[in-house]
């Protein structure tokens, strides 16, 4: 493996005082284990009230139709993704690899239904929780790769990395039906994690003597993969560029000449070289096909209104604004028992953090500035992508502050990085006593824990409001009937009644005949019932 060596001697931080001498023994390894544990438990605690939220939009059908199909015939994933490219290009998007991942997540969800007998709504949320944990870990990896002055993960963790799980947890709020915490969470949490990991890889290459053939080839292939994944994945390119420059200039103190001639610049250049030959012709083709406004509105790009929507998207990750979107239903009890229970559990994690704090590497102000730079870059890129969408622009104009959208996953990660940068910058050890530093950091962490606890309670409110709706109740019943398939005549009658109730939820003009929504419902639930029980969902269906 190519050695990672700084091209120039890092410039000392003028504001940093004497740094603690770290023991040569691996006493920091339990600290890393504690950080990974918090990265898994904090998002799980905050999102746990959503475990039974009913699927909505396409998830009502995809979990059954795609999940059952690709769980038992996974080899069809690639071929179907390629065959569907012309169809989706006509709708205004090009996401063959993203669709493969989405369908694979549906298959994993249906696998949990088949293996453990879980209702589809619960299995869907468990997959979303797992990808939220992956996003949290990816954020930690990016932070460590950006602020490290040596080889990342070869020594004790930064205090930044230890604090980040608490900051990220408060952002996993069900801020409306379009939030990634509610809709397509698995796909967009995974996409945001991929964006952050690519940026982390770019930051890690900074300071190498040479890039190496394997990393160069990997960069080109990664660029092409990102171009064929989805639009949010495009943000990995500018974020990787920013990460490489920020680490080189702010943390390692390299000159501009050393920065642009280094391995980091070569890696990001090859990343762009793999991306542009795929992305540019595809976007040109989409622009031509969608010039008349006939494409899928969720993929519309409207540059004229983006500037006006930017303030809305730049603040969409703030938990207090998201809380009002989650608690708008008639069951708002944000200050109820759910908050106290979440706070108690989270405080147990703070105790471990306090024990590990002396063994964390304390960042100086240059590292805090670097973290702020990468957090702000991620936030601006995510907000910019959201602000380009015409639907989002209309919602922003209508005053829907804190509303979640596809950009929420990456915006939340960027906002958390920025928050921790401010916290560690304010309480930097260089201009405070050791005791003042520890107390200040603990105070900041307790504030983040309180925010995460309120977010947990807000998610409880969202779930309670959604469960009171007839459509949610209907799809909960459908999920239960699919997993606990009753082969008797009474079971068939119950399922046919649910089918009739689904028809009743359609607009009056589309309730007669065999409308597309009814056909899609039958196809989805029949596919699932056929795989699990060998019978149709309802024998009265065509």
Automatic annotation (TrEMBL):
Positions of transmembrane segments: 35-54, 126-147, 159-176, 182-203, 215-237, 331-349, 369-388, 408-427, 439-458
Record keyword Transport present: no
Alphabetically ordered keywords of this record: Membrane, Transmembrane, Transmembrane helix
Protein name: Glycosyltransferase RgtA/B/C/D-like domain-containing protein
Signal peptide: none
Region of interest (Disordered), residue spans: 1-21
């Amino acid at each position: 493996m190519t050695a990672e060596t700084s091209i120039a001697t890092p410039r000392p931080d003028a504001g940093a005082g004497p740094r603690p001498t770290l023991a040569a023994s691996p006493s920091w390894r339990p600290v890393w284990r504690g950080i990974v544990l918090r990265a898994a438990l904090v998002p799980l605690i905050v999102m746990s009230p959503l475990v039974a939220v009913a699927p909505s939009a396409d998830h009502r059908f995809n979990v059954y139709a795609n999940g059952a199909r690709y769980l038992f015939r996974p080899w069809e994933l690639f071929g179907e993704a390629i065959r569907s490219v012309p169809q989706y290009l006509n709708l205004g998007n090009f996401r063959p690899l993203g669709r493969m991942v989405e369908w694979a997540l549906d298959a994993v969800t249906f696998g949990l239904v088949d293996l453990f007998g879980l209702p589809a709504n619960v299995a869907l949320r468990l997959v979303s929780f797992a990808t939220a944990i992956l996003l949290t870990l990816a954020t930690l990896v990016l932070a460590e790769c950006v602020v490290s002055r040596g080889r990342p993960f070869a020594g004790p963790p930064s205090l930044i990395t230890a604090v980040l799980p608490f900051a990220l947890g408060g952002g996993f709020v069900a801020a409306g039906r379009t939030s990634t915490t509610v809709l397509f969470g698995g796909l967009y949490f995974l996409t945001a994690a991929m964006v952050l990991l690519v940026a982390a890889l770019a930051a890690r290459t900074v300071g190498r003597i040479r890039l190496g053939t394997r990393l160069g080839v990997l960069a080109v292939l990664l660029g092409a993969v990102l171009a064929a994944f989805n639009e949010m994945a495009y943000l990995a390119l500018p974020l990787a560029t920013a990460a490489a420059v920020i680490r080189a200039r702010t943390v390692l103190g390299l000159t501009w000449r050393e920065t642009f001639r280094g391995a980091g610049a070569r890696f990001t250049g090859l990343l762009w070289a793999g991306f542009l030959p795929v992305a540019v012709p595809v976007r040109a083709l989409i622009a031509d096909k969608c010039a008349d406004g006939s494409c899928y509105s969720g993929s519309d790009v409207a540059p004229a209104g983006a500037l006006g929507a930017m303030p809305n998207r730049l603040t969409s990750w703030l938990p207090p604004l998201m809380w009002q979107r989650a608690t708008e239903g008639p069951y708002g009890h944000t200050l109820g028992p759910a908050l106290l229970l979440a706070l108690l559990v989270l405080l147990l994690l703070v105790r471990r953090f306090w024990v590990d704090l002396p063994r964390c590497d304390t960042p100086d102000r240059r590292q805090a500035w670097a973290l702020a730079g990468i957090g702000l870059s991620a936030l601006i890129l995510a907000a910019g992508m959201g602000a380009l969408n015409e639907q989002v622009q209309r919602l922003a104009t209508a005053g829907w502050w804190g509303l979640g959208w596809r950009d929420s996953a990456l915006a939340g990660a960027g906002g958390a990085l920025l928050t921790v940068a401010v916290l560690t910058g304010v309480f930097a050890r260089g201009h405070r006593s050791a005791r003042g530093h520890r107390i200040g950091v603990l105070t900041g962490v307790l504030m983040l824990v309180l925010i995460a606890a309120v977010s947990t309670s807000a998610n409880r409110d969202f779930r309670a409001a959604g469960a009171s709706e007839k459509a949610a109740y209907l799809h909960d019943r459908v999920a239960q009937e699919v997993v606990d398939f009753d082969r008797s005549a009474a079971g068939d009658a119950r399922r046919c009644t649910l089918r009739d109730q689904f028809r009743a939820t359609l607009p009056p003009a589309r309730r007669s005949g065999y409308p597309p929504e009814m056909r899609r419902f039958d196809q989805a639930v029949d596919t699932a019932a056929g795989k699990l029980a060998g019978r149709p969902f309802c024998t009265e269906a065509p």
